[in-house]
Write a structure and sequence with these properties.
about 500 residues; alpha+beta; DNA polymerase, domain 1; Enolase-like, domain 1; five-stranded antiparallel β-sheet
Length: about 500
């Protein structure tokens, strides 16, 4: 065990044992270092003004990951090289910075450091970036005065070729530094009453959490971070799961994916998109790049939010959740994990270990849709997922789940029953069956949508899914693009 966190800054090893457990990386940079180029805008991971890049080793390769420093704990930088906007320029501006100047990508400048860092990460991605790549890279950044066209132009200009900056030239040296500090020791900083801990094995995590069942588990802190910055909660005991070996793995089985709880959303995207293209599109709209680099599949489930995007999709697919307490594990259907608003079937000292997601059978079709006021970086008003098993043109089995429609992610049992046995081409019968959604859900009115809108939207989404599966000719069934022929019924 060691009692320090260790990371690199500007080629120098930083080792700290005195940081409060809930100190954010942004506060460390601005208050401890006085590196004030990184800005605090929203303090909730939405605007991207606080974006920094963590240079890490992943599978033996140096990668550049943009993250929101405002909702990331300083302890989560352990094992990384932390790069901020102040570090980019040497004798001349970095190519990304110069492109922002040349293309007039900045006005008031408050958001500019975050945009620069997001594009700096894209600059180090393999291959030349196209317009879609640039828009995707900055989808987690907001600007309210410049407009995005000149910023996109700057990204296209800067990220058009192979990276060639001082960071790429010192990668071999930094790789050696990062390997040197990548030990296999538990981290424990503080006392039994107030600590930041980061175990390295599932066994050590289980033992520590049994000893401190009142501790807060964090993976990406994209939700818990807001408890600190917005709710001003005091979280005296924090256990970070980011160093636990084994929880970060995806096992691709013949008929399912076994996804460890700390697999990042960004890393899970290819495997989930291979199940169905709608899952890939859902994850693209999950949040901005910075959030997807931190948020985890297990965290999105474990926090029990009624508007989390992944649970409805995974429930519709028939996912099973694996939980562990001490040395014992148990498996429950994901839909049974959510008991009530922010109440889950998880005992004190028990944690989410993995989720198993079934792949689609030959007769199964899947669709999922996210409705939100803003296309990128927004919370769902309604998130719907539908899986149908079709036999002889009829709906043999249906699994329908929604988020944003109840106090928990929930299946539409009454509507499922009404749909069974109907022809997918019998539009009038399908619409009559969907009236049963009113028995399944009594949505609330709130700032995102009215109850009437939610209910009517839910009916329309299921009808849209059935129409697509029935092969009703249309190229306008998607907000962004139509499904390819490979995914048609």
């Amino acid at each position: 065990m060691r009692n320090t966190i260790r990371f690199y800054r500007r080629g120098r090893l930083i080792e700290r044992s005195d940081l409060p457990p809930d100190r954010t990386l942004l506060d460390y940079l601005r208050l401890d270092e006085r590196s004030t180029g990184t800005k605090e805008g929203c303090a909730e991971g939405d605007c991207g003004a606080c974006t920094v890049v963590l240079r890490r080793l992943r599978a033996g390769r140096v990668v550049y990951e943009p993250v929101n420093a405002c909702i990331m704990l300083a302890g989560q930088a352990d094992g990384a090289d932390v790069i901020t906007v102040e570090d980019l320029a040497g004798d001349t501006l970095h190519p990304v910075q110069q492109a922002m100047v040349d293309k007039h990508g900045s006005q008031c400048g408050f958001c500019t450091p975050g945009f620069v860092m997001a594009l700096f990460a894209l600059y180090h991605e393999p291959g030349a970036a196209n317009r879609s790549d640039v828009i995707e890279a900055i989808s987690g950044n907001l600007c309210r005065c410049t407009g995005y066209r000149p910023i996109v132009d700057a990204g296209l200009a800067a990220c058009a070729g192979k990276p060639n900056d001082r960071f790429t030239r010192d990668e071999q040296k930094m790789s050696g530094h990062l390997r040197a500090i990548a030990d296999h020791k538990d981290i424990f900083i503080g006392s039994d009453e107030r600590f930041f801990a980061a175990p390295v094995s599932v066994e050590n995590l289980a033992a520590l959490y049994l000893k401190h069942p009142d501790a807060t588990l964090v993976a990406g802190t994209t939700d818990v971070g807001l408890w600190i910055t917005k709710e001003l909660r005091d979280l005296p005991k924090l256990i970070w799961l980011g160093r636990v070996t084994g929880l970060d793995r995806i096992e691709d089985r013949d008929d399912s994916l076994h996804i460890g709880a700390t697999v990042r959303v960004e890393d899970a995207t290819p495997a989930l998109a291979a199940i169905d293209s709608d899952l890939g599109e859902l994850i693209r709209r999950f949040a901005g790049w910075q959030v997807r680099n931190a948020a985890t599949i297990g965290g999105n489930i474990a926090n029990g939010s009624p508007i989390g995007d992944m649970p409805p999709a995974l429930i519709a697919l028939g996912a099973m959740l694996e939980l562990q307490k001490g040395g014992r594990t148990r498996t429950v259907p994901l839909e049974d994990y959510f008991l009530d608003y922010k109440k889950q079937d998880r005992a004190p000292g028990e944690f989410v270990r993995a989720v198993t997601v079934p792949k689609l059978g030959k007769e199964e079709q899947f669709r999922c849709f996210k409705l939100s006021k803003r296309y990128d970086q927004d919370i769902s008003a309604v998130m719907g997922a539908i899986k149908l098993r079709i036999g002889s043109g009829k709906i043999a089995e249906a699994r329908i789940a929604f988020g944003g429609m109840a106090a928990t992610p929930k299946r539409a049992g009454a509507a499922e029953a009404k749909l069974r046995g109907l022809s997918v081409k019998d539009e009038s019968a399908v619409h009559l069956a969907l009236a049963a959604l009113g028995d399944d859900f009594k949505p609330l009115d709130d700032m995102r949508a009215s109850a009437d809108y939610r209910l009517e939207a839910a009916k329309a989404l299921v009808a849209k899914a059935v129409a697509e599966i029935a092969g009703v000719p249309s190229t306008a069934t998607r907000v962004f693009g139509a499904r390819s022929d490979a995914h048609a019924a």
